[in-house]
């Protein structure tokens, strides 16, 4: 008797954002996500999901809405995507369904709509509790917005909440970072992701760095603050289980673990990566390119890889040894977000 195939993870990339953050090097659609743009993208996503389900896929046990800012997609459209995942990929009844959100996008009613469609895990892109830093980052929310968002999400019934923080912003000091850790402790999240700032790509931040206008903290200071963070979170019962990720007991992200454990996952949407049978593929990297490919009735795959497992590409993903040292995050995008 053949063994049942391993359950897969599903990743849906929602590329819309209110504006581009100054450090952002992610795959996003820089245009306003008006109704027409949302609907066109939704149709492309549904077509891609249907096509890949027809080609044969194992049942899924995780669904992850990443971005971009998935909380900008209208609830009715998110619900259609969850339904498609259930019907096309036999999404397990107890599946982990995560949605990344910006703290200011949703109120309690919005979070309740997420619960009703089955979202049971929220990843809040808090990044900092210092409002001047948030402004420099180009984000529209404040530290207080993050607190209000977490309270509203809990009231709406989302029990599993993760918070993202960014360590190493220009001008980082021990005092400022410690106040971030205090803000975090007050929120009592179930899971924390701490991402080390990377100044990269064609971002406003890297432009300023080239002009010599950034006072970046030293590597030694960042390493000290990272170690301090590991200790502070451990003291609150949150153990590090991957380089950037900390969780209370049983709150590790089932979806993210698939990336580090060479488990199969399918990614849908522009720039999304998939990993199946030891091979990685990735989709068209622009909104227009992705939508046109799907509208032409084809597939959106833009690239196929190198040999074997994905760890062969500059070690950027899925090696269990990644769990032991600071590095960048997910295989296809640094997993801020929302
Ligand atoms: S950092 Fe996140 S919220 Fe900001 S522009 Fe990039 S994807 Fe959007």
Q: Provide the structure class.
A: alpha/beta
- Overall 3D form: globular
Helix content: 25-40%
Distance between the termini: 44 Å
> Briefly, what CATH class?
Alpha Beta
Number of strands: 12
Q: Write down the domain tally.
A: 1
Beta strand %: 15-25%
CATH architecture classification name: 2-Layer Sandwich
How many helices in DSSP terms? 10
Main sheet specs: 9 strands, mixed
Q: Output the helix-strand order.
A: EHEHEHEHHEHEHHEEHEEEHE
Which molecules are bound in this entry? iron/sulfur cluster
Regions with little confidence, pLDDT below 50 for 5+ residues: 307-338
* Radius of gyration of CA atoms, rounded to a whole number: 19 Å
List the helices and strands and how they pair.
Layout (H helix, E strand, L loop, with lengths): L7 E7 L20 H20 L5 E8 L7 H15 L6 E6 L6 H10 L3 E7 L3 H7 L5 H14 L3 E8 L6 H14 L3 E6 L7 H7 L8 H17 L3 E4 L2 E3 L6 H7 L4 E4 L4 E4 L2 E5 L3 H9 L5 E3 L35
Helix pairs in contact: 1-2, 1-10, 2-3, 3-5, 6-8
The protein binds iron/sulfur cluster.
